[in-house]
Amino acid sequence: MSQDLTEGFVCSNLSDDLSGLSFKEIKLSEMSESFVKINIKAASLNFPDLLMSQGKYQNKPELPFALGMEGSGVISEIGSKVETYKIGDEVMFGGWGHGAIAKSIVVAESMISPKPEAYSFEEAAAFKTAYLTAYVGLIRRGQLQRGETLLVHGASGGVGMAAVQLGKLYGAKVIATGTSDEKLEIVKSWGADEVLNIYENEKVNFKDRVKDLTNGMGADVIYDPVGGEVFDQSIRCINWGGRLLIIGFAGGTIPTLPVNYPLIKGFSVVGVRAGEFGRRAPILGKENIDIINSLADDNKIRPHICKVFDYKESKEALEYLENRKLIGKVVISIN
Question: Of 79, 126, 215, 236, whose CB has the highest number of CB atoms within 10 Å?
């Protein structure tokens, strides 16, 4: 067994201004019998990467740690009990943890999947977190049914665009919201039936328009990675028996719920943690991953990448994410 070093984009101390980030060598995980070593080709950024560098995410890795929840690459070494993969295989990994913005990573065989042949390394790196979150949210937790109306907030982000794609694939009418007309036009080209810019005169405003689009009934499933005022208005435009899915709080404010609303309207507020779902129910967790991988292999879903940064531009990529410039996913090309 061995433990090597790799260079990565490393958080050495927590800070709000990204000053704790730099390129340096860190230790890889121990290369044991059921693990593989991957030479990383690409990694994608997610909003939790920013939060982790600031110490504001629920997952708080021990310092120092390399950023990056997911990536893709080529297997360069395998443990003695690895059966499914061989050296030279192209794979994707992540949807959890950290360490993807680095030259190499050591992970358990169970945590990787073959790279879809139709995908580039950049697309494979941008795939798992968004689509696993969307699938667990919409199908496992939200029980989305064909013909229902799905309201997707933050629809121009990675998890939002994934929800739009999957929602259409599973037969829903999709209403997508955002804060930029230009971004929403791209979301509409990806399948949304209706798009709503939720800001009017610098105020959040969409509940009446959602009701108008649903003949006064409201949305059956609401996918909310934003929180704050978006959540506050969502509970006012949800259908009887609806499911309001809590994905995250990208808006920065954690809302509170007057419990008379779900009592009177008979709706459910449902928390979505895709990774934890798989840890708590490993058989279903594997099934979730197999399903989204199969959809990717069949080229039925594909992440939208708005910008690819070089490895040494990782800090600029994180600033791009922080400034909400992205549409879909931001990817870092590494090797």
Answer: 126
How far is residue 26's CA from residue 222's CA, in Å, rounded to a whole number?
A: 41
The CATH number assigned to the domain holding 226 equals 3.40.50.720
pLDDT band with cut points at 50, 70 and 90 for residue 3: low
For residue 106, what are the domain limits? 5-127+304-333
| Residue with the two structure tokens 């810019």 | 197
Report the helix count and the strand count for the chain, using DSSP H and E: 11, 18
Q: Is the dihedral of CA 70, 76, 80, 86 positive or negative?
A: positive
Residue 286: which of 112, 100, 80, 84 has the closest Cα? 112
Contacts of 180 (CB under 8 A, 6+ apart): 156, 197
Confidence of residue 58 (pLDDT cuts 50, 70, 90): confident
Distance CA 159, CA 165 (A): 10
CB atoms within 10 A of CB 335: 12
What is the rounded CA–CA span in Å between residue 106 and residue 129? 19
